Amino acid sequence: MENNRTPKLRTVNKSVPAFPLNEFPKNFPFLLGKEIIYLLASKGKPELEGSDWESMFADCIGAEWKPSNVGLDDVVMGNTAWGAKSVKAAKPSSVKKIRLISGRNSPNYSFGERSDRKADPKLIGELVLEIWNERVSSIREKYKHLRTIILIKSNDLSEVVVFEFDTVRYEHQFYNWEWNVRGNLIGTNKKTKEQTFTWQPHGSQFTITENVPEKALIIKIKKPETLNKEEVLNALGFNKSWITYSKRESKEL
Predict the structure, then answer these.
(1) Which conformational region is residue 230 in: left (phi greater than 0), alpha (psi within -120 to 50 degrees), or beta?
(2) pLDDT digits (tens, 9 = 90+) for 211-248
(3) What gap in Å lies between CA 219 and CA 158, rounded to an integer?
(4) For residues 145 and 126, what is the distance between their CA atoms, to the nearest angstrom?
(5) Taking the CA atoms of the chain, what radius of gyration do you get in angstroms?
(6) pLDDT digit string (tens) for 168-199?
(7) Which of 39, 59, 92, 217 has the greatest number of CB atoms lying within 10 Å of its CB?
C-alpha cells in the first residue's frame, strides 16, 4: 500500500544568535555614549583606538573581550563572535560606503605564488580570497554566528554610527580582477559592477568595501569637561608612598 503521508518529526532547536542582526539591546546606545563620554573626559582628547572599540562593544552588550590575532573574533558571546573595526569620517551619518582593512593576504607566503603585476590577476584574486575564506571558515568552526561590528567615528567623537553585518566567505567566480594604474589588484562585482576588493602587492593589504545600511544606529555625543588630574588623584587618596623607585646597579665582569 502506497504511503503518501508526511512523517511527524521532533522539533529541532535552532542555534539562535546573541541578538538579531543590527537589533542591539535596548540600552546599547546609552551605554556606548556613556563609554565615549568617559573616554573623552579621562583622555582629554578624542582618541578612540581599535582596542578601545572592541572592549567598549563587549562591555555594552555583556560579552567577553578576547583580542584575536585573526581579528575576526575579538568579541564573543555564546555562539556569536564579532570582529570589531572602526573608521573615521567627517560626518559619519552621511557615509554610504566604507573601506575596511581586512588583513594581510599574501599568495606568495601562503601558496608560494608570484604576486606582482606580471602575474595573472584572476589567479591572484582567487588566491587572495581563498586566504580570507580560510580564516572565516576556521572561526565558523567554533562559532555558529560570525559578524563584523563597525564604528564610524567623527574626528571629535561628537557623532558615531554603529552597524554590523555577517562575516562571510566570497566566491571568486562572482568577481572580475584587474591591475589598476597604481599596481593594486581590484576585484569588481560582476553583477553590480561595483568595486568590492582592493589588494596591494606591497604589504599584501586586503581591503573590502562595505555598504552602510540605511537603518544604521546614529549616536550624537555632547563633549564633556576634561577631568582635572589633581582632583582625580586627590579623590583616589593618592600619596607619595604609592610610588617607589630605584636605580639599576651595574654588575662588574
Answers:
(1) alpha
(2) 999 999 999 999 999 999 999 999 999 999 999 999 88
(3) 8
(4) 25
(5) 24
(6) 999 999 999 999 999 999 999 999 999 999 99
(7) 92
